[in-house]
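Re-run with default settings, no changes from the original entry. Doing this only to confirm the output is reproducible before filing.
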Amino acid sequence: MEVSSKAADQIFEKEFVRGGVLITEMRFPSGARKLKYIVVLNKNPAESPTLLFLTTSQTDYYDRFPHVDHIRIQQNVVPFFPKETVLDCREVFAMDRADLKRRYREAALKFVGVLPQEYMDQVDKVVAASRTIAIRYKKQILGWP
């Protein structure tokens, strides 16, 4: 068992990168639990906490309110998003890196790919201009001193 944990940890460290897209169950303040795709934002992914944006394929809200901070990815542009997908850039979720690693060991988290750099460049622009993202998070995401 120890060997497989060590192997899982090595894979986690290799795959856990900025722009990495993961799928895991998220628990929300309402008590709801949903399987969600999440995107790692940290400039230095080894730094804790891990900052994340959630994604959604439910785009109606963003169609009605296009001024809301989000990044839209058209369907099949990246292989792990077969439907049109939105990165919700209004709220940063902070999760403990150790918790994410534990989830990976328990097969409750899966790596699905890495967002192309053009989308991470858009993330940086949205984060830098955001009025809702805390400055401490901006520093961690953008690598500001």
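The mean pLDDT is 93. The radius of gyration is 15 Å.
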